[in-house]
Amino acid sequence: MTTATTPTTAKSHVGTAHTRVEGRDKVTGAARYAGEIPFAELAHGWLVLSTVARGRIRSVESEPVLAMPGVLTVLDHHNAPRVETDYVGMLGVRPDPTCALFQHDRVPHRGWPVALVVAETSEQAREAAEALVVHYEEEPHDVAFRGEHPDAYPADGFMPAVTDKGDLESELAASAVVLDAEYTTPEEHHNPMEPHAATARWDGGRLDVVDSNQGATWVVGELAKMFSLDLGAVRVRSEHVGGGFGSKGVRVHQVAAVMAATVLQRPVRVVLTRRQMFSLAGYRSPTTQRVRLGADADGRLHALEHHSTSLTSTVHEFVEPSAGVARVMYDADAHHTANRVVRLDVPTPTWMRAPGEAPGSFALESALDELAVKCGLDPIELRLRNEPDKGPVSGLPFSSRNLRACFEEGARRFGWADRDPRPGTRREGRWLLGTGTAAASFGAGALPSTAVVTAQADGTFTVRIAAADIGTGARTALTLVAADALQVTPERVRVRIGDSDFGPAGIAGGSMGTRSWAWAILMAADELRERLALSADIPPEGITVRSDTTAAVGALAQKERHSFGAQFAEVAVDVTTGEVRVRRMLGVFAAGRIVNPLTARNQLVGGMIWGISMALHEEAVRDHASGGHVGADLAGYHVATHADVPVVEADWVDDPDPDDPVGIKGVGEIGIVGAAAAIANAVWHATGVRHRNLPIRPDRVLLAGAQDGAAPQAAGAGAGAGAGGGRGASTATGAGGPGTGARDA
Ligand code: MOS
Fold it and tell me: In whole angstroms, how far apart are CA 324 and each of 318, 561, 591?
C-alpha cells in the first residue's frame, strides 16, 4: 500500500499546448490501426459491387470462384445470414438499409454491395472477387440531380423540414434592397487517410470487432440490433482511427466481417478500397439553394428565405440540412427556411464535416456579401447590424454568441479597415487581388457518456472511456482535463479509449466528442478526489469511480447553443488562366474553452483548408449514362494539397460555455463553415464576378469573365440581382468594368 496522492500541482493544464500523447506511437508505427492488428487464422473478405445503376441480380456465378486458390466462401443474397433492420439506433434514426447486406436481389445504385468473397489471403480474395461474374436485369435509372427536380419533397432529417414566420412576399415587396440568388454545391466526398476496416471474430460466445469508427458504443448498438444479440455480447474496439469526418459510423464493412466470421467461425477482416469508399463510405449531397433577402436601405433584414434541395438514395432518407444555418444566423420579420430532398438511384449520402452548415453557409454568407454590395455597406457592418438577440426561429436565448468579438478581432488582425471595397481594382502583375469574409456557426451539444477513473497505488491514474480519437487529439485533450480534475500532472494520467467495454459513451461527431467525454471524466474524477481525501491508503487494486452524465446533460437549460466564427480570405485570380489562389486565411472563433491549443488549432485550420478545397477543387462527377463516378479515386477527385494551401491562421476569443463544467463547446466542424464563402467573396472582390456555383474552377472563372465583360452592370441597389446565373454560369454584380478589366488582363 502506498499513500494516497497529494496534489502535485494546482496549475491548469487545460488551455496549454500539449503534443499528442500517442504521437510517438503514431510516427514510429507502433500504433496499430484496425486493418493491421494480427489475428491467428485470419481470413480476408473482399466486397463485390454492382456494375449497374438499377435493377435486379439475376445470378451470382459463385462456383468457378469457389474453386480458385484460397477461396473459403462467397456470400450473397442466397446464403448470407438474415439481419434485422426494424429498429431505431443510438442516434435516434433507423439504419440505412445499405448496411443490411445481401438480404434481397434488388440493386438500387451502382456500387451496391452484391457479394463478399472470403479467402485465406487478401490477394486471393481480391483476385476471386474480381473474377466473380454477376448477371443483372437492368432497369432505367435516374442519377441527375437538379434543384427543381419534380420529385423533391420537404424532409426533416435531424430538424424540421420547414420553418415559416411572417409574410415573405409582402416583406420582400416592401424592402428597399432585394437579393434573389441561386447557389449550388457539388457532390463532395470525405476520404479519411485510413480506409474503413473491420475484423470480426467470435470469442467465447462474444462477438469481438476491431474496427475504425467514430464511436464504439454506437457500432455495438447497431451490430447487436442487426444480429439480434445482447449489448453485452458485442465488443467493439477502435484504439486508433485515421480520420472519419462523419463517414465512420456503421457501414457495410463491419456487417460483412460479422457475417463471414459467423459463417466460417474464424476471424474475418474486410477493408474497403479507396474506390469502394466512393460508393460505400457516404458523401455530402450536392445542393441547390435559393436565398432571397429583403432589407431596408440601412441593411436591416426584413425578409429572409433560404431553401435547399439535396439528394438521397431510394433506400434511405438522409437530409443535408443546409437551410438550418439561416435559423441560427439572422432574423427577419419574414423568415422562411426549407430543406428538401429528391430520391435518386445513387448511394445514400451521410454526415460530412459540418453537415448542413458547410454548404448552407456558402449560400447564405455569399448572399449576405451580395446584399452588402447592394446596400453599399461593409459586409462586416451588415452582419453586425443583423445580429439577433435570440434564436431567430427557436426564440430561445443564446448560451453565448460572441460573433461580434470574432469579427472585431479578425478585422483587426486581417487589416480589414484598410480594405477598398471596390471590386476588380487591385492588380499585381497578372493577378487580380481581393479579400472576403464570412460568418460561421456550428451547434454545441453534448451526449450522455460514462467514464471510469481509477487511482492506482503507485500514484498514477487510469481513465477508461469509450471515446474515439479520430485524429482530433481527443485522447490528449481528455488527458489534460483529467489531470486538472485530479490535480496532478498529465504524465500521471493514462487515458484509455476506443473500447466499448469501458461503458457507453457518445460519438466523435457533431463536434460533441471531447465535450461529452470531458464532462464524464470530470464527474468521475471529482468524486474520486473526494474519495481519496477520505482514505489515506490506496489498496493494490486501486480505487475506481464510474460516472454517468445522462442526467447532467439532460438537465442542460433550453438555449440556442452554438460556436461562432469569422472567416477571412485573400485571393489572387489569374483571369487569363482562370486560376484562383488563396494567399492567406484567418479564422477567429468563439468556440468555448480551448482545451489544447495545439490540437484545437489543428482542427480549425484543417477545416479551413477543407474550405479552400471546397471552394476551388472538390467535385465528384457522376456519369449519367452508367450511374457511376468519373474518376472515383484521389487522382480523379481533386482535393487541396500543400501547394494550394497558404498561411492559414486560426485563433479564438474567450468564450467559455457557461453551462459546461469545463467550458467546452467543440471545434471539430466549425473550421470549414463559412470558409468557402469567404473565398468566393474574395474572388468577387478581386474580379467583380460573383461565383455562385462551387467549385470555382478555372473554366468557370474564364467563362464568367467573358460573360461579365460582355454585359458590365452598374453598381448600386438592384444591380445584378436574380437567380439568373443558374447552374454553371455566373452573373456579375457590383461596379461596372471589373469584368472588362478582367478580360483585358
Ligand atoms: Mo461529424 S460530420 O458529425 O463526424
Answer: 14, 14, 19
